[in-house]
Amino acid sequence: MQINRYFRAATAAALGGCASLACAAAAFAVPAVPPAAGVPINPGNVPTTAADYEHECSGNLGGGPYPGKDVWVFNLPGNADKTGVFTAITATFDTDGDGAGDKSVVIEAGAEAGAEDGDDIVFVGHSKAYVVTTAGWTLVGATATITGRADQFVLTHTCAATGTPPTTTAPPTTTAPPTTTAPPTTTAPPTTTPPTETTPTPTDDTATGDSTPTPTGTPTESLTPVAETGTGGGGLPLTGAAAGSIAALGVALVGGGATLLLRRRRRFVA
């Protein structure tokens, strides 16, 4: 009976010692680090558009540039053993220009090639992630889940789009037809007016006695030549005008003689 007592006491002491050692080991054990959720982006990186940020286009970080598409690249700086790596990123964008986030994009590792959203998580020097979006969006915020203890991550660079985004295509502008310039007007040479000949007005020279009287009436004397009455052929023929003058002179002489005769008779009678 006494042996049993000793055996029980030794067993109890051994069990107590093992329990104490287990507790001490548990106290010195390093707990596992769970993934940190909700690590924010550096607030100095947002808000921004891809066109307004530092540009760099790389084939292993989304490629580009693309027509109508922006590429965003995020980085988790520091030693990956301490800061960890990305497991997912949720990026929030303003797509309508009102300043408020209205579109969230989740970036995860192992995205299929040619995926519609075009995102992936890769390791290039540090843990990085990229996403391809419609051009013109504004990044207003982002959070990430990581495996380490980093307190934030950064937007390292972008690859802005080329060309016009398809969602913001403006209607074609109607171009006004070019204005046709009228040709210069040709000025006609001045018309030369020939000088007008002035017909001198006849001056009445009656007072000076130089005016030639204009014959009035129609002459009654015949200009028919009268045959010569003489027998000789050596004399000049008498024209009708000369014969008429002689006849008139004769009549006048006869008349004058008759008048003188009648006056003489009256004197004698008286």
TrEMBL record:
<feature type="signal peptide">
    <location>
        <begin position="1"/>
        <end position="24"/>
    </location>
</feature>
<feature type="compositionally biased region" description="Low complexity">
    <location>
        <begin position="160"/>
        <end position="220"/>
    </location>
</feature>
<feature type="domain" description="Gram-positive cocci surface proteins LPxTG">
    <location>
        <begin position="236"/>
        <end position="270"/>
    </location>
</feature>
<keyword id="KW-0472">Membrane</keyword>
<keyword id="KW-0964">Secreted</keyword>
<keyword id="KW-1133">Transmembrane helix</keyword>
<feature type="transmembrane region" description="Helical">
    <location>
        <begin position="241"/>
        <end position="262"/>
    </location>
</feature>
<feature type="region of interest" description="Disordered">
    <location>
        <begin position="160"/>
        <end position="235"/>
    </location>
</feature>
<keyword id="KW-0732">Signal</keyword>
<keyword id="KW-0134">Cell wall</keyword>
<protein>
    <recommendedName>
        <fullName>Gram-positive cocci surface proteins LPxTG domain-containing protein</fullName>
    </recommendedName>
</protein>
<dbReference type="InterPro" id="IPR019931">
    <property type="entry name" value="LPXTG_anchor"/>
</dbReference>
<keyword id="KW-0812">Transmembrane</keyword>
<keyword id="KW-0572">Peptidoglycan-anchor</keyword>
